[in-house]
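Kindly review both lines to help learners:
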Amino acid sequence: MDAPVRKIIHVDMDAFFASVEQRDDPALRGLPVAVGSASPRGVVAAASYEARRFGVRSALPSVTALRRCPDLVFVRPRFEVYKAVSQQVHAIFAEFTDLIQPLSLDEAYLDVTDDRQGLGTAWLTAKAIRARILAETGLTASAGVSYNKFLAKLASDHRKPNGQFAVTPDMAADWIETLPVARFHGVGPVTARKMEALGIRTGGDLRACPLPFLQRHFGSAADWYHAIARGEDYRPVNPHRVRKSSGSETTFRENLVDDAAIEAGVRSMADDVWRWCARAQSFGRTVTVKVKYADFQQVTRSRTYADPVASEAALQAAARDLVRTVLPTIKGVRLVGVTVSSFPERAEESALPLFAA
């Protein structure tokens, strides 16, 4: 017999870090708020919806954010507070299902196929969860409801903030057809540009591409793109998913040849990665730096340590030392990235501060 259709909810807290700060400090309400540092090397960790209207977003350099929004108010992150709120939210989830897959401090997948609360539908379950979150934390959340994870995640973004949207099996194909491929989970900015260069701008365009064509242009990712264009995603909600690495990379507006500028870019990426490590309390032993040159040649340098890299300064130093092995360079550098891996066994158990109690 066919397996029952899954009922998946993707819950995403609205502008989580910034919303917590506005909740706790009434003077910040209604103002454009950025969580992070306003220093010249600072990066925005999160932005309120008031700030987003000016184009301020997470991972944006603070100097750029201030140019876009001169009235932007920076507040220092309080990860211990965000973690405590995340634990409150997780406790609410656990009343509705045991199948919870955290993605970060502010979002998770829930499989509610088993209607524990007897509410009748996944739609009503999502509404009940969001109402409980608001009542207990004073914060809003958005939710997407569908029969798989890919569509649920897409749907949660469709009515943000403080809304929910459902994608049913009978409407999925038509709905996907109209969406820009840049919105698809798993299609990053570089891939989206490549797809657009090939004339693939919407889900309908992607669905029209034969699999051999996608394999020729996108290699091992082709099967995934072929499937999601048809609304197919058979991945289960996995409460025990193990994260193997955490990384961040950036493409510069102009190719860099100055050693100090390249090192500053690597340090910024190391800071991005450290933010995840700090809030997840998950620390790896291997640090990898990626450098892509103007001619698209790419090199990586890695080092594995006997003990986990457990401080921001240590990660910055490791990344700096690795990038210096390819400096100086006469070729322009267009992209740098930093990744931490080799987490301890069952690292996701320590990473579950991303939503765990």
User: Anything to note?
Assistant: Residues 172-228 form a domain with the DNA polymerase; domain 1 fold (CATH 1.10.150.20). The two ends are 37 Å apart (CA to CA).
